[in-house]
Amino acid sequence: MSKKYDVVVVGGGPAGYVAAIRCAQLGMKTACVEKWHDDKKEPVLGGTCLNVGCIPSKALLDSSHKYSEAKKDFEVHGIKVGKIDIDVPAMIERKSKIVKQLTQGVRGLFMANKVEAIQGFGKLLKGKQVEVTSADGKSEVLEADHVILAAGSEPIDIPPAPVDDEVIVNSTGALEFQDVPKRLGVIGAGVIGLELGSVWARLGAEVTVFEAMDAFLPAVDSQVAKEAAKVFAKQELDIKLGAKVSATKVSGKGKNKKVTVSYTDSDGDHNAEFDKLIVAVGRRPLSANLLAEDSGVEVDKRGFVVVNDQCQTAVDGVWAAGDLVRGPMLAHKGMEEGVMVAERIAGKKTQVNYDLVPFVIYTHPEIAWVGKTEQQLKEEGVEYNVGTFPFSINGRAMAANESAGLVKLIADAKSDRVLGCHIMGPSAADLVQQVAIAMEFSASAEDLGLTMFSHPTLSEAVHEAALAVGGHAIHAANKRKRN
């Protein structure tokens, strides 16, 4: 006899575990199926984000930044230190401890909310049944009134650079290096490639990033992208645009293994040799083998499960969220979808505002944005005003020796409603969230300008950019006549 639940969630990543917890909070008998497991065959929760994505990469980003700061920037503060060295295995071990602590934390939340965690690969069958195949090959079928598919995503492989998990790695393997490669190649100058490349560059690797597109960070506001390119060049990240990788060849044995990358750019064909190569060209949804042929759920050409704005599939009672569905593959987007689905099942009218999804690139300095870019507004024919303020004249940024970058605020020319905010600089991810909150309440640039910001803080740059929209920034020269 199969087990019966109100809700079965397939996937224990950010979208899945959040959906499961919220369903349980709303009084539903809930199970969460997760294929990852530990050596005891117990489910490991948290998905890509906690285990091999957001959290471990940020642990390494912070460790590498502290090392770089101690080596290069302490003297600015009058701090004198001796020889600085990095213990890479210790850094990786610290990362692993943080991951373990957080994944165990999710398990604790499941226990507190009475969510049943089930280890195994979940597959949706006809009639809202979920077949679960455990690590030891045993199968069982779960029945549910509602099924939430949240299987997540995986790194994309490319034929010219097959991953061998030794010399050529994907984003997961790049989190496990036990020493600093002298020369490191990265395929892809997107979020993942830049973050991982910057980690190992700060630790001393000579990093070359190959990007097939001619434009750098095309999704980012062009003014901010140009500023970012300048900063990364100063950090000695060699970013080659319009560079298409055609082949790779691994040679040597043991620690002497190398990989030769063949690529083509506007100057012709080239070869470059590296100790390690990271393939970071994006991710794809994990929809393969997730659905039985007669499940009734549609999948598009790119492998995404087809849903509406409320994450409902074509099958009544079957939902999908997170990286498995349309939209940006971001943990916080998946979490909010998980909450929305749970509350929709409970009869609430919750809706995710997809126009205000914050984006962050966790380089140093960070790049973050919310809302529309200037180029998007131009294409849409929207009249707008812009206010900018550089961190180079922000007192708190100068005191911290973190003065690279700027804040850019864009507002509707007629209503003054804030349409977008784009930041490169210290704590950009946290600063842009202030504007995201303001935009959620339809704030104007004037509203932000009339709000009192504490001094001295980094957030004053947001305040000044808002004032600059109207041409009356206080601590910077204005480009337009004051009103």
Short summary:
By secondary structure, the protein is of the alpha/beta class.
Fraction in beta strands = 25-35%
Unreliable stretches, pLDDT < 50, 5 or more residues?
Answer: none
The geometry reads as globular
**Superfamily (CATH H level) name of the largest domain:** FAD/NAD(P)-binding domain
Structural class: alpha/beta
| Highest-level CATH class of the largest domain | Alpha Beta
- Based on DSSP secondary structure assignment, what is the total number of beta strands? 22
Which bin fits the share of residues in helices? 25-40%
Instruction: Examine the secondary-structure arrangement and name the CATH architecture of the largest domain.
Output: 3-Layer(bba) Sandwich
Structural domains: how many: 3
Rg: 24 Å
Please give the count of helices: 12
How far the N terminus sits from the C terminus, by CA atoms, comes to 75 Å
Overall residue-averaged pLDDT value: 97
Biggest β-sheet strands, sense, barrel: 7 strands, mixed
CATH topology of the largest domain, what is it called? FAD/NAD(P)-binding domain
Provide structural commentary:
Homodimer. The N and C termini lie far apart (75 Å). Helices cover 30% and strands 25% of the residues. Helix 3 runs antiparallel to helix 4 and helix 3 (54-72) runs parallel beside helix 5. The strands form five sheets. Strands 1, 2, 3, 4, 5, 6 and 17 form a seven-stranded mixed beta sheet that branches. The protein has a five-stranded parallel beta sheet with strand order 8-15-9-10-11, with helices on one face. The protein has a five-stranded antiparallel beta sheet with strand order 18-19-22-21-20, sandwiched between helices. The protein has three domains: 3-155 and 284-354, FAD/NAD(P)-binding domain (3-Layer(bba) Sandwich); 168-281, FAD/NAD(P)-binding domain, CATH 3.50.50.60; 365-469, Enolase-like, domain 1. It has 483 residues and is of the alpha/beta class. The chain contains twelve helices and 22 strands. Strand 21 (406-412) and strand 22 form a beta hairpin. The chain has helices at 14-25, 47-52, 54-72, 88-113, 191-202, 222-234, 331-345, 374-380, 395-399, 428-440, 445-450, 460-469, and strands at residues 3-10, 30-34, 116-119, 121-125, 129-133, 139-149, 153-155, 168-169, 183-187, 206-211, 238-241, 244-251, 258-265, 268-274, 276-279, 283-285, 318-320, 359-361, 366-371, 384-390, 406-412, 418-425.
